[in-house]
Amino acid sequence: MVTTRISVEPHIAEYIKGKFFDHKSGTVRFPPTLDIYILIYDLLQKRPNNCPLESGNLEFALPDRRDANMAGGKSPEQFNYLSARASKRLGDKMRLMMWAELHDLMDENKHLKGIRFKDSVFQFLCRYGIESITEDALLKNYQRWRDKLRRTTKRRYSRK
Q1: Alpha-carbon gap, residue 38 to 18, rounded angstroms
Q2: Partners of residue 22 on adjacent β-strands
Q3: Is 39 exposed, middle or buried (0-12, 13-18, 19+ CB in 10 A)?
């Protein structure tokens, strides 16, 4: 199993580790059915000669597809490099994944189960072991998202 590292925000790294950590292999391993698995596979490149090993706060296993040894396939032993641009794109995808799950959980808990937003955020933080971001920051993000998405501007009446 070949792994690589990327740098992401600390709370994103904690979320990904909490959600996808595989105790058997001792690293983060994405299921092959997820879009991020395919995205990682598509972004992998051959490591340039003068490029040092990656450093970052999130280590994960590289996709090992069955067609890797066939023509056009990518073997993780040869294609094990993610550029800075690819790392940023993966970080953005992981951030989006976290916020989408949090917003969905908060909506579902509030409207279907009657659970307060603050309790939903606490449940989310505990489920994934996230300690590097506060509850208030997650609540504020949800409020901004909700206001941006759901609020409609009041109709302006013109006086004649």
Answers
A1: 20
A2: 27
A3: middle
Q: What is the pTM of this model?
A: 0.85
Could you tell me if 30 and 37 are in contact, meaning their C-beta atoms sit under 8 angstroms apart?
yes
Q: Which long-range contacts (CB under 8 A, 24 or more apart) does 101-109 make?
A: 102/138, 102/141, 102/142, 103/142, 103/145, 103/146, 106/142
d(CA 12, CA 43): 20
115 neighbors 107 (Cβ within 8 angstroms): no
Residue type, 107: D
Quote the CA–CA distance of 11 and 17 in Å, as a whole number: 10
Is the pLDDT at 119 greater than 70? The verdict is yes
| Residue 10 CB neighbour total at 10 angstroms | 14
| Count of all residues that appear for the chain in the document | 160
Give 13-38 pLDDT, tens digit per residue: 999 999 999 999 889 999 988 999 98
Q: What is the mean pLDDT of residues 73-96?
A: 89
Q: Which amino acid is at 114?
A: G
Distances (CA, A) of 156 to 148, 151, 153: 19, 15, 9
